From TrEMBL, chain A:
Pfam families: BPD_transp_2 (PF02653). The chain crosses the membrane at residues 33-54, 61-80, 86-111, 118-135, 164-185, 211-232, 252-277, 289-315. One of its GO terms (molecular function) is branched-chain amino acid transmembrane transporter activity. It is found in: Cell membrane. This is ABC transporter permease. Keywords: Cell membrane, Membrane, Transmembrane, Transmembrane helix. It comes from Marinibacterium profundimaris. It comes from the Bacteria. GO terms for cellular component: plasma membrane. The keyword Amino-acid biosynthesis does not apply. Its main location: membrane. It is a multi-pass membrane protein. The keyword Transcription regulation does not apply.
Automatic annotation (TrEMBL), chain B:
The keyword Signal applies. The keyword Signal applies. GO terms for biological process: amino acid transport. Belongs to the leucine-binding protein family. SUPFAM superfamilies: Periplasmic binding protein-like I. Residues 1-20 form the signal peptide. This is ABC transporter substrate-binding protein.
Amino acid sequence: MARKILTVAVLAALAVLPPVFYLTGNAFYLDLATRLVILGIAAVSLNLILGFGGMISFGHAAFVGLGAYAVGIPAYHWLYYTAGDWAVSGLAQIPIAVAVTALFALLTGLICLRTRGVYFIMITMAFAQMVYYLIVSIEEYGGDDGLVIDTRSQLPFLDLDDPLQLYGLAYVSLLVAMGLVAMIVKSRFGMVIQGAKGNDERMRTLGFNTYAYRLTAYVISGAMCGYAGALLGNFTTFISPEMMDWTRSGELMFMVILGGAGTVLGPVLGATVFIVLEEVLSSITIHWHLPFGLMLIAVVLFVRGGLMGLFAVLFGGRK
Amino acid sequence: MTRIATLALLASVASTAVLANEAKIGFVTTLTTGAAVIGNDMKNAVDLAIEHLDGKAGDTTIEVIFGDDGFAPETGKQVTDKLVKQDDVDFVAGYIWSHVLLASRKTVLDADKFLISANAGPSQIAGKLCDPNFFSTSWQNDQTPMAMGEVLNRQGVKSLYVMAPNYAAGKDMVAGVERTFEGEIVGKDLTKWGADAQLDFSAELAKAKASGADGIFVFYPGAAGGAFIRQYDQAGLKDTLPLYSVFTVDALSLPKLEEADFQAVLGSRTTQQWDPTLDNAANQKFVTDFKAKYGTYPSYYAAQSYDAIMLIASAIEAVGGDMDDKDGLRAALKAADFDSVRGEFSFGTNNMPVQDFYLREVVTDDDGTWTTKVVETVYDNAVDPYAADCKMK
Amino acid sequence: MDLTLFTIQLLNGLQLGLLLFLVASGLTLVFGILDFVNLAHASLYMLGAFICASFTLWLGNFVWGVLLALPVTALVGLVVERVVARPLYARDHLDQVLATFGLILVIDTAAQLIWGPAGIAVPLPDWLEGQVQIGAVTLPSFRLLIIGAGLMAAAGLFWLVNYTRLGMLIRAGASNRTMVSALGIDIQSLFALVFALGATLAGLAGMLIAPITEASIGMGNSVIITAFVVIIVGGIGSMKGAFIAALMIGLIDTLGRSFLDDIFKLVMSTEAAETSAPAISAMLIYIIMAAVLAFKPSGLFPPKVR
C-alpha cells in the first residue's frame, strides 16, 4: 500500500512540477526533468534484466547511443544527401532505433549469455566499447566530434521542438515502459526469468530453456533502451560516442541500484535523485565528483536495497 | 561635456530603474579532469581581462559566469543550456574542444545570443554552419598545420612522418599539413584517443625511426604532448628526426618539461597565430601582468580568452550597454575594434579572424625559463580554407 | 616488414604486456582470493605514479622515489581495504562494482585537488636516459629496465605464490575460503595482506610508466578496462592465465598498431586501410576477449576449484 502511494506521488510530481517550472519561466528545469525521465526509461529497461533477471549489464549505454544514432544518421542523410522525408519521420526513425538495438542485443546476447557473473559484466562492457570505437572511427558521422541533429523526429500531432510536448512524450513513454515491465514481471515469462536468477539449474530441470528466456529478456531490455536513446537524441539534438562510454553504463547501473533493483519504481526514483543531486552538487562546486562518489559508496555500504529498501524499512510496516 | 555627463547620469538613473546596465558573459571551459590545466589558464586570462577593464565596459558592469564542460560534449551542452536558459547571459564564450562547441552551438544561436569561440575552430563552423552571431578569437583547425606544412617546404624537408590522435581534430591537423606540404609523407599513425587514450608511443616511434623520414610532425594536445616529447627524447631521435609540432608544445607543458629537464624540446618548432614575444603594447601588458599575477607565461589559450573578453567589452561599449541592440552588438563585434594581443586583425566573411601566422622556436629566456620566440612570419593575413563554403557575405 | 623493426616491436609489446601483468596480477589476486571486484584498482596505479613523482621531485632521484613510494602505496592499499573493501566482501559483485566506481570518482577528484590537474613529468637519472644497442636493435634503456623489473616482479610473485607458506595460504584461500579460516588462520589479516600486495603491484606499474607518460589524472581509467580484459581472458584468479593473457594482449595490441595498416593495404586501398586500421586496432583487445569468451566462457585458464 505504502509503496503504491509513493509510486503515485512520484509519478504525479513528475507530471505536474516540470510543466509548472516551464510556464513560470524556468525553462532549464523542464530540460532537467526531460533528461531525467528519458534516463529513467533507460534505467527501467536495465532493471528488467539486472534487477529481475540478475543479468548485470555493464554495457547498456551502447543501446542508448545506438538508439540516438538511429535518429541522427537518417536525419543527417536527409540534410546532406538525398534521403527522402521518411528519414526525418519519427515513424521511421523510432522503429529503426528499436530494431537496430534489438538486433544488436540479439547478436551480442547470443555470446554474452553463455557467460556468468563477472564474465557477463565484462563481456557486455567489451561489446559496448567495440561500438564506441566503431562510431569514433566513422568520420562521415562526425567520429568523436559527434553529430548535430538539426531536425527532430517529425511525428503526427506532436511537435518535438516544443519542450512541453517533448516532455509529454517522454513522460508517457516512461509510464508505458514501467507498465510493460510490471506486466512482464508478473507473466509466466517473467517468473521464469526471476526463477533463473535465483536457481538456473532448477528452472532447467523443470524443462525451461532458460537461455532462450534470458536472451528474450535481454533483447526486450535492449530495444527499450534503444527507444530511450532515440528520445535522448531528440532531446539533446546532439549525439556523440561519449554517450556510450563505460562510465555512462556505470551511471545507469547506479540509478537502478540507488533506487532499488528489482522494483518497478526504483529505477525512476534512482534517476530522479541522481539527476537532481548531480545538478545541485555541480552548481555548488566543480569538484562535485568527490561528494558524489562518497555518497555512492555510502549508499552501497549502508542502504541495502536502495531507496526503495530504505522506504520499506521506514514505512513498510504500516501496510 | 556637461551634456554628456548629464546624459550619462540620466542613463545610469534610467538603468538602475530597469537594471539594464549589466552585461553577462557565460564562459565555458574545462575545469575538471586533466584538461583543467587548459581551462584554468583560460579562466586566469579572463580574470585578468576583467581586472584590466576594471570590471566594466564603458558604464556597463560585466559579470562572467564560468561553466565546466568536464571535457565532454554532453556536459558542455548542459552547461551551455543552463547559462542561456537559467542565467540568461548575453554572450557565451570559451570552448576549448571542437566537439563541445559543435554540441553547444545550436542552444546559443537559437536563443539569439552571441557565441565567441576562444579556441575551438572546427571546419563546419567556419564553412557550412557559419552564423552571423558566431565569432572566433582563435583560428580554424586547418590553419596552424597548414602554416607548418609551409615551414617544412621552406626548410627543405622532403619526407615526413605524421602522428596524431585518431579523432576529428587530429584528422583535421593531418589534413591541414597534407594540404600544403609538398614532400612525401612516408608514414602516418593515428593513435587511440578518448577516455583510454594511448600514451605509450613506443611502437609508433620505432616505426617513425625506421622510416628514415627527414622530420616528424605531431599534434598531441594536453597531457599527451608531454608524454610524447618524453618518449621522443628517450628514443634519442632529436638529431635524426627533428620535431615539428602544432598545439603540442605550449606554455602549459613547458614548465613541466623544464622542471623534469627534458632538453629535447628546446629548439623544436611550432606554428601559431600568437606568441608572448609579439611586439605590441596590448601583448606586453598582457604577458607582463599575467606573469606577475600567476607566475607563468600565458599560453595561446589564455591569449585567445583575453582577446575574447576584450572583443566583447569593445562591443558592449560601442552600443552603450544596450544589450537589446543585437544589430549594433553584431556590427561592433564584426568591427573587432580593440587592441588584440596578436596585433591587428579583422574578421573574414565567416567571422573567423584574418590574421598572421608565425613560426616559433622553443628557447630559454633571460631568466632561464623555457618559452617560445618568433622566428619568422609564415602567413600574412591568412584566410581559412573553409571561408568559401560560408554563405554569409 | 623488416626483421629489426619487428624485433623492436616484439620488445615493445613485451614491455606493455609486463606492465599490464603488474596491474592485472593484483586484480586477479584480489578477485580470485577475496572474490572482490575492484574497479578502483587502477586508481592505486595512478596514486603510485603521483606519489612516486612527488618523491622523485623532492629527493631528485627516481630510484629513491620508487623505493619510498612502494611502502606508501601499500599503506594506501591497506586503508582502502579497511574502509571500503572489507565491508563489501560478503556482498554481491554488483555492490562492489558500484562502490569502487564511486571510489574512482573520489580518488580522481582528490588527486586533482592535491596535485593539480596538470600532471607531473618524472625525470630519470642520466644512466636511464640513453639508449641501449643490441645488434641492430636500439631500445631506450628505461624500457629495457621496465622489461627487467616486470620479469623480476613476475618471478617474485610466482615464487611467493608457489613456494612460500603465505603463497600456500593464498592458494588455499582461493579454492576454499572456509577451509583456511577453519585452520585457524587469521583470514582478515591474510586478506588485508593480499589487498596491499595487489595495490603495491599496481602502484609499481604506475611508477614505471610515469617517466614515460607522466603521472596524470585519470591515467588509471585507461588501464583498468584493459586489465580486466586481461584477467577475464586469462581466467579469474589464475596467475598463470593473467601472465599469458597480459603478454598476449600486450603483443597483439603493439603489433596491431604497428603492422595492421600494412597488412590491410594488401587487401584494400591505402585510404581505406589508413582509416580502418586504427579503428580495428583500438577494438582489437575487445574483439579478442569476446572471441575467447564465446568459446571458453570462463577464460583460458579457469581456476579448478571455486
